[in-house]
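Homework help thread (please don't just give me the answer)

Our assignment gives two proteins as sequence + structure token strings and asks us to describe the second one. The first is just a warm-up. Here they are:
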Amino acid sequence: MGKYFGTDGFRGEANVGLTYDHAVKIGRFLGWYYGKRLNKPCKVVIGKDTRRSSYMFEYALAAGLTASGADAYIMHVTTTPSVSYIARSDGFDCGIMISASHNPYYDNGIKLLNASGEKMDEETILKVEAYLDGEIAEIPLATRDEIGRTVDYVAGRNRYIGYLISLMTTSFKGKKVGLDCANGSAWSIAKAVFDALGATTYVINDAPNGLNINAECGSTHIEGLQKFVVEKKLDVGFAYDGDADRCLCVDEKGNVVTGDHILYIYGLYMKERGKLVNNTVVTTVMSNFGLYKALDAVGIDYAKTKVGDKYVYENMVTYGNRIGGEQSGHIIFSKYATTGDGILTSLKVMSVMLAKDKPLSVLAEPVKFYPQVLKNVRVVSKPDAQNDEDVQAAVKKVAEELGDNGRILVRESGTEPVIRVMVEAGSDEVCEKWVDYVIDVIRKKGHIVA
């Protein structure tokens, strides 16, 4: 990770950690850099979520790009995976998504994608950061007919909707589906897709006002959808995050079906049809013991990566694996997408329900979760807290106490000034005890923000 860009882009509170000036400079550099490499004006596609500040950053990026001679194609409010799809399918030199994903409205982020719709390579990211820090000479301004232009490209979003619909070969007619759009990017896309496929679609949290994205809704606050599915007697519910690159599900009984469950359900479906390349599902170190036991029971192998769909995708590219993801709902189907795609994930879950003619509760039942407690602590310095000898000693003690009956994981967030402490064990009480034990040590050493 660089100074500004983490595992999922450059994030910060709008005009505090991530400012208008940052956005202009990022646009200036990318427009110049790609134009110089290609020896012609470059084309960049831009999407945004529904945060109030996303409009400011959209204009700032477009201004920077056009001032450097690039053409900026504006998709308006759309999802991260749609920008990825359009970048690779419509011949763009790179793509930009303005979103802080599941964070509150006052945060925002800038995600950079290459021409293949993949997360930008580290070498280019470091060059962007060097320009932000004034380590690269000032870039010349385009003049006269070399000044770039902005192009309304809402057609790209519509093409993405058509792409999703085209992937399904079975009608959803007769199925009652609930969608929680988190007052975010899915608001303008998800219902159109499900309606076109014949579902009876019920939608909540689809009235964004710039301030309510992720507010007590979506994949990070799924309780509302659970209640909604039960009250409306729906067959299934899907909850997205702010930029719709993740999806969690609710079964017909109101139970949450996590990303780990989805990996099992679709991984097994692929295996049964001879489609599971390498007989392997890619997970992260945050996946639950219960997933691994369920995969073992059906003879499916698994890989473990660092947390972040970036690392999951790198593994998939390196080894040719076809499905991977995170417990949080970032699921990658590498045959169809180069990033996590929440709406695509919900369609894939629907396809298994229809093909097997089974409710989601039955499909998810073999995955028996170990109790897991995860707590986030906001710290002054992530490296200092993580590397503190006393903190490391506390983590070692917990690992020894748990033995083969559980595990502890302490890691830095890639997008926030936060240390995440997670324990899996035989009971919630044991998990709570050891998570709090480690957090108390972090607090006593003065690492936690007052």
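The one we have to describe:
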Amino acid sequence: MTARWQPSAPIENLQQRSEILWKVREFFRQRGICEVQTPVVGSHTVTDINIESVRLANGNFLQTSAEYFLKRLLAAGMPSCYQLGPVFREGEVGRWHNPEFTMLEWYRLGFSPSELRQEVKELIELVLGPSDVSEYSLRDFLFNEFQVDCYEETDQELHKVARANGFSADFRRADVLDFLYSAAIENRRESRYFVVDFPSESCALAEVREIDGHLVADRFEMIVEGLEIANGYNELRDPIELKNRMEHDQRLRRELERIHIERDKRLLAAMEWGLPRCSGVAVGLDRLVALSLGANDIQQVLPFTQSQI
């Protein structure tokens, strides 16, 4: 039997993908945002327990995003910049996932998250055309769907609501909230919207602030046609807090029997030197292209998927 050698995507789709990439690069060129290229292989990777990295035989890692390298550039004096290129995540296979995918990531010096959301909105409109965009806090988003308060409800109350909607595991509060959030997205028919102000447990590398007596992560996500397209932060700048969060991730990894990830000392050194005030965002480019072309999955806009390499 002859092995299938043809691309997964129609050639016409790949040609249209190329046009979208040119549009995206022109979008940033007109704004004076510098394109950079950072390594796809690094000696370190993210400690985040929600992300599994691809480890190479020599102990290095394929990068899950350009974040660490871009922040080192910003600390060294690089102006607002972006990267458009491949990133890698272990085990992410599905209709809207591939272990290797294209990420568009950019950082804006001096921008607030609301200013960055406006720029994200303009980029999405460039590719998909204009549309109304709503905005919800995660607290209101979940209350509108499930009539639960993500800050006031007990773990038991949240579990009860989650189980009533198909959640069958018994994980941490953060996992339950993630499930409810995903379920709410699936149920909402609105075309485009931002969700902002997540619980502090999901802060990742975002700053944390207080709202109505509750600590919230100053981050946002943009949902388009039921898909997460963008994830942005008011970027954490405190090196001590960054070290503490990495150590917390390491403890959780031990508890969950995940692979141990060492802290990236070069990133910590850059943060100690001084990361300028900035907001950053990552966009799943393959998903955005698929939505633009009316494709049913990202396989229709990738030259070769995981099963073909």
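TA reply:
I won't write it for you, but here's a hint about the kind of observation we're looking for: The radius of gyration is 20 Å.
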